[in-house]
């Protein structure tokens, strides 16, 4: 006997009454028993595929999640969605599909859930866009939901040192500069990524994995264990049981994701020196709940959050090291000590964050996680900027940079797209002191807001990462380092000031005061705007990317494809 009142669950539309006999026939066809058909139906969405190591371990974990659902008298129904893997899409046209895939993932999970009237959702994801896409679907549907990260990759080992894919991207620059032989490059590429799992530093996937715990959608500590560890499967099973508990208590995704829990998530991004992409994904998740939590709100949190977790790319350690010293819960305990955490938010086990943290006995180890009272730096590893060059804001990761390195003035060197900039970097046709400007790479103008690790890593690899600055209306990888300012808004395609820059304009970037400006008066900018010939024509006149370019909204609001949506009028069946 199930303790769930099926008459109140969405799945009754597909399993109950004489009119649903044909529907039940399909379930019998898949080997389900009568009892299983009449239990709650739980969608188990995974992003498993063979595109990249990030998602390859999800299938195993999904089976464990399904066991957990079954143990708690639910019937799991597994389904998959798409992914685009940034590491492989990087540096070419393919990267335009990346951010657009976040929306496709949210949409496909939503449509599958709606079409089959599932009652709850366990979502497993392992890569940069699949994590926020899955969380967006949970908040959009507002069903009882538990998120589970697929886990990070193990670090590679070369010449007695841990290495990650970041080293391989940067090795391309060393190779271009003649400081690395082809043979050495090949040796590195063969060992840098030794297992299943998402990129190992505090890059975008691990940043969003930390967010999943901090925001409350994932069980505490579930993000930490690397993908190949079968100990992850205990969390998967527990996630399956947890979603049934939430269903019983009718705790839904929007009870968990609130303004306060978004603030908790932003704190964790800042104190770990996380990916600037969180400046897009947190507003996008908030948007699904009808909450205005824009880039400037995220940056406001960053401003007074100490940076105290020493992770790559700014710092020394990888996700596995963080896990070994206690993971996100220990980080959150430090935030709590400084009064920087809302403890009353709900987490995936149905208790509050404060209650969940009370059960954690470990303390900051002082090496990977510093005590918040003696942080690496007093302000966040990620900073927001504004000024006459970015009236709608911009974002930069400063983790690992000294205060002197966070102020830069130099002449603009303008490129109309990433390829032009990469070629110039490859040919070393730029100078120390330049501010490289890459425009027409915004969400609508790219289209797709490409991530530019190939170019920024090449600069670092050439040893020029600290000698130039870079600004763009596109975005950066979590593995990008150097003074690289992204999300400059409004984007060039919308006629933002970045579209009006000319070579030689003097640009000032100041992460200490939060300024991004160009030495042009309002009159100068207005005169240039009057002469502006309009957005550059993109390559895409049809298909998914054209559709995306037509629908996508502004960067500071998360580059969502339905900026006018009214989440407060949301319906999922009659929940
Ligand atoms: C390839 C990476 C490192 O995953 C990157 O895409 C990121 O955003 O962190
Ligand atoms: Mg990425």
Automatic annotation (TrEMBL):
PTM-bearing positions, type N6-carboxylysine: 129
InterPro entries attached to this UniProt entry: DHAD_IlvD/Edd (IPR050165), Dihydro-acid_dehy_C (IPR042096), DihydroxyA_deHydtase (IPR004404), DiOHA_6PGluconate_deHydtase_CS (IPR020558), ILV_EDD_C (IPR056740), ILV_EDD_N (IPR000581), IlvD/EDD_N (IPR037237)
EC numbers for this chain: 4.2.1.9
Catalytic activity, as annotated: (2R,3R)-2,3-dihydroxy-3-methylpentanoate = (S)-3-methyl-2-oxopentanoate + H2O; (2R)-2,3-dihydroxy-3-methylbutanoate = 3-methyl-2-oxobutanoate + H2O
Membrane-spanning intervals of the chain: none
Domain Dihydroxy-acid/6-phosphogluconate dehydratase C-terminal: 367-559
Any one Gene Ontology molecular-function term assigned to this protein's record: magnesium ion binding
Residues where [2Fe-2S] cluster binds: 54
Cofactor: how and how many bound: Binds 1 [2Fe-2S] cluster per subunit. This cluster acts as a Lewis acid cofactor.
Cofactor(s) in the UniProt record: Mg(2+); [2Fe-2S] cluster
Positions of Mg(2+) binding: 86, 128-129, 451
Active site per the UniProt annotation: 477 (proton acceptor)
The entry's keywords: 2Fe-2S, Amino-acid biosynthesis, Branched-chain amino acid biosynthesis, Iron, Iron-sulfur, Lyase, Magnesium, Metal-binding
GO biological process, one term: isoleucine biosynthetic process
Domain Dihydroxy-acid/6-phosphogluconate dehydratase N-terminal per the UniProt entry, residue ranges: 39-355
Pathway per the UniProt entry: Amino-acid biosynthesis; L-isoleucine biosynthesis; L-isoleucine from 2-oxobutanoate: step 3/4; Amino-acid biosynthesis; L-valine biosynthesis; L-valine from pyruvate: step 3/4
Family statement drawn from the similarity comment of this UniProt entry: Belongs to the IlvD/Edd family.
Quaternary assembly: Homodimer.
Purpose: Functions in the biosynthesis of branched-chain amino acids. Catalyzes the dehydration of (2R,3R)-2,3-dihydroxy-3-methylpentanoate (2,3-dihydroxy-3-methylvalerate) into 2-oxo-3-methylpentanoate (2-oxo-3-methylvalerate) and of (2R)-2,3-dihydroxy-3-methylbutanoate (2,3-dihydroxyisovalerate) into 2-oxo-3-methylbutanoate (2-oxoisovalerate), the penultimate precursor to L-isoleucine and L-valine, respectively.
Official protein name in the record: Dihydroxy-acid dehydratase
Gene from which the chain derives: ilvD
